[in-house]
Amino acid sequence: MPRCRHAPPRRSAAPIRLACCAAACAALHWSLGQGPAWLAPAARWLVGSHPQRGVGTSAAAAAERGRLVALAARGGADPVAEARAKVQALTVEAGYSGPAYNGPASVNDAFVKGLLAMFKEQKKLPMKYAYMMTLDVLDILKGEKTLQRVPVPDGSKITVIGDIHGQLFDFAHMMENVCGFPSPQNPLLFNGDFVDRGPWSVEVLLTLFAMKLQHPTSVHFNRGNHESEMTNYQYGFSGEVQVKYELKMMELFSEVFRHLPLATVLENQIFVVHAGIPGPDPRQWEDWFSKAPDEAAGILSREGGQMTLAQIEATDRVVEPNPFESPLVIDFLWGDPKGANGYGPSGRVPMVYTFGPDIAQKFCEANGLKLILRSHETKSAGFQETQPFCHTVFSAPNYIDKAGNKAAVAVVTNTGGVLKPDYKQFDHQPHPDVPSGAYAPNGPLAPK
Ligand SMILES: [Mn+2]
User: Fold this and answer.
1) For 140-249, where are the E strands, in sequence order?
2) Residue 162 C-alpha to ligand 1 middle, in angstroms?
3) Which of 165, 173, 215, 226 is catalytic?
4) 8-state DSSP, 6
5) Which among 28, 310, 344, 358 has most CB atoms closer than 10 A?
6) What distance in Å separates the CA atoms of residue 58 and residue 412, rounded to the nearest whole number?
7) What is the 33 CA–ligand 1 centroid distance (Å)?
8) Residue-wise burial string across 320-335, b where 16 or more C-beta atoms lie within 10 A, e elsewhere
9) How far is the CA of 191 from the centre of ligand 1 (A)?
10) Basic and acidic residues: which segments have biased composition (predicted)?
């Protein structure tokens, strides 16, 4: 058993130090090929080692269950090849009268609207079609990049949509009445967190897939922190997939999530990312965990220089987020802006940074950008001009049926060569009596 490489704490920060070591040792076991393989570091990082969350029995049990389930899922052959073989054997039930999928060319406006109407009636798309669409979306995403560059020519617009989180009835209202369905004249960028929490994550995701298949160059995706295995096994998506289809299907969804772009630059002016921007360099975890948060902010900077868009573009995105193996992915999927200058700690999970207005400004200036547009945080108005160089847009109204927030989308228009976001707000909609979190571990509809 390798010894933890961390030095003892220099001051009294014992609980945080312990958390750091637990996660670091898990990663060390991972790198040496010992212990329980691929999910353990991430699962412990998320739920098993957080000093504020504690190591609750249910969370630990859920993490272990997720680990075992996912291990089993990954133990077999190539998930894509398996899914392709499975599709051949699946049949569509005789009484089915909804949209029929026969390749990307079969998706038109009537298909998308018919799919959404069917989902609102709480009917299912046949599993055969769900697999086929997911495989075809994966093919498209494999041809995309870590950093997508989307032109927004003078006189045109693109709408950026924040977190959705499986809130199908709010999502349908947004599509029908707020942002409109996608087309070459109405491009849409969905900025992550499509699934988890809300109990219609499957339906939201398949609708997004249908729109992507119909308009692959007018519908864009960025990955959110909830497009990952460690959150899907904690916050309901995997349970929902197991109940509505089969757990095996998670393997293919996870493969799609790993191929999602991480960020999108609009017309070389606006950097759109789910959560945050590159963290400090060097990352200085040792000093971090031995200091109080306010002190830590002062010692973290980018001595190594600003990260360039070319460096981001060259980063391998096809990973599960892990602070040791893919730190930039963690920054993009988990970070948050903060009020004071400098980097600081995140209250969400260990080994995630927050960034001050000076950090955002330096990143923008180094890359010739005007603004960072991100999501990831609930805002009461649905949007917020969080910092001079960083705005937030969040598109899940009354988040988790409790937050009471409005939602918004960002309509980014190019006028005379200058991009500017305008925010369109909307309210939450009535929905059937299925609560947020229904399919999460211990939720009322969780698989037995
Ligand atoms: Mn998020």
Assistant:
1) 147-150, 157-161, 188-190, 219-221
2) 9
3) 226
4) P
5) 344
6) 43
7) 30
8) bbbbbbbbbbbbbbbb
9) 9
10) 422-431
The Cα 23–Cα 350 span in angstroms is: 9
Per-residue pLDDT of the chain (448 residues; tens, 9 = 90+): 333 333 333 233 222 222 222 333 333 222 222 223 333 444 444 433 333 333 334 544 554 454 445 545 555 457 888 899 999 999 999 999 999 999 999 999 999 999 999 999 999 999 999 999 999 999 999 999 999 999 999 999 999 999 999 999 999 999 999 999 999 999 999 999 999 999 999 999 999 999 999 999 999 999 999 999 989 999 999 999 999 999 999 999 999 999 999 999 999 999 999 999 999 998 876 666 666 666 666 778 888 799 999 999 999 999 999 888 899 999 999 999 999 999 988 888 878 899 999 999 999 999 999 999 999 999 999 999 999 999 999 999 999 999 999 999 999 999 999 999 999 999 999 999 999 999 999 999 999 8
Residue 168 and residue 200: Cα distance in Å, rounded? Answer: 6
Q: Does the annotation count 215 as an active-site position?
A: no
